[in-house]
Model the fold of this input.
Amino acid sequence: MIKLTKEKILRLRTELPPIKEALAKFNDDLIREFVRDALERAPDGLWLDPCSSSGRYHPPFDQVVPGGIINHLIIVGLYFVEQGIRRYPEFTNDKSEPTPRWLDLARATFMVHDIAKSGIPWEKRTDPNHGSLGAQFLNRLQSFRELDLADRIMILKGVTWHMGRWTPTRKLGCFDAIVLLIREADYYSTRKRVRIAGLELINYSSLPAK
Ligand SMILES: [Fe+2]
Ligand SMILES: [Fe+2]
Done:
């Protein structure tokens, strides 16, 4: 468990050890730089708030303050993405290993999918439309526009539709595999009884937010 104050989190942001470690995993420098830039420019609330403003729907490590959303996006959920991606033929090579490009895209999409969780500007409550708001936020970043069009489309789809049946303007069916992967990792990594051994979480032993 890494014990961090609010001030230290805001001062260090992507220089925090677990975030640096996650960013170091990217194969593509442009994708890494986009994720770093997006997280740096994200509202302070993303770095400080618990995952669920109501206190429901998330396990304790997602609910610590400060750092709950970061535990979800960059530590726990990312682990589920890295495991889940192996089940998809779309993302794997002949040896059943995920290809570097798809691993990069899946990791990048997950790390930014809740970037507008409580809206832009950030409010107190989860915005039910935060998938679309997040996609709009990313689209405005120069670092995002430098990515290949095909990569941008994948990331935007994953972010926009990550809430699945809870997406306000949901469309049923015909989703790309990346949307399904992000949705699954988002859902299963946040079940109340999920236990994560061996992951270094931020402020996990502090009291969960009410
Ligand atoms: Fe979300
Ligand atoms: Fe999420």
